[in-house]
Amino acid sequence: MKHIAVLSTGGTIASIPGNEGRAVAGALPGEDLVARTELQGRLKVQVESVFQKASNAIGASEWKTLAEKCRQLVHGGGVDGIVITHGTDTMEDTAFYLHCVLDTREVPVVITGSQRVPHAMGSDAYANLRQALELASNDHAKGLGILVSFNQSVFSAGFVRKVSSFQLNGFDAPGLGPLGMMDEGVFHLLQRPSMLHLLPIPEKLPRVDILPGYGGAHAAMAEAVLESAPDGVVIDGLGRGQVPLAWLPALHTALSKGLPVGICSSTFHGPTHESYEYPGALHELVEAGAIGISHLSARKARIRLALALAAREGDLSAVKADFDWRFAGA
Ligand code: ASP
Predict the structure, then answer these.
(1) Residue 203 domain flag
(2) Angle CA(54)–CA(59)–CA(64) in degrees, nearest 5?
(3) Taking CB atoms and a 6 Å cutoff, what residues make up the pocket around ligand 1?
(4) Whole-model pTM above 0.85?
(5) pLDDT at 329
């Protein structure tokens, strides 16, 4: 019989009714959740309630704890799969951190949560957890990186995003779709994800902030962030990686001082590219030292830039290489 470790961290999937009629996310222990998945003894499941938090309270120190726990479980042997239950609001951040640091070739790691509380009519809590357990016990889930299992769809943590604040199909990989699906306990694996190489788990994650680009952006916000001494910045750029005109003076000053700046695209899919020759276009900023980042949302790019900065100790060309996709067809 396959042996699955469940690490519960809180979120809606672990909610109980609050005194004022709303939900208290994270209050339900993992054991109670697993007890209702109706697995009928088909899997041996061990549960650890690692945190009982809403996911807006999960960040760098919790990511490190989870990554180290997963490594201990893998190195300790005897575990065939790992399931992490998590609030959906920051599930894509936790999943992507783990995706950057964990090798899943021996033991699959699957994250899930729910949009509806367990006590709601038609809750997805137990169905999502059950599908995640079934996926984590499937040998075809090995080596795909961290998987997000939700509403019978299976996504790569590299591309998944929360796309609905409330509906049961809350996650998608825009423009790419799921890797596969779960149906009656069967994992239908339809495509394998491209992945970036693994990075070490740092003792302390550097501070990387996100500057969201938009039409009419004022200089003041960029100045405030760039002058506040972050370790790095990710610009959620416009289209192919353009930056609001008003930000250029502060940005060039920061780049000239060696601040690591990554520029990704705020579009839902497609690479950044040095296509243009006008002020604020990606080429100008790459010439000044910025790194163009493709195929990662700003939230994911921020995590990878922080991990890369920790690993490369100031070597920006090595940091740049940490964003190199090596496609099979390249
Ligand atoms: N607010 C909740 C959280 O992220 C949402 C959820 O779990 O679905 O903790």
Answers:
(1) no
(2) 120
(3) 11-12, 25, 54-55, 87-89, 113, 115
(4) yes
(5) 59
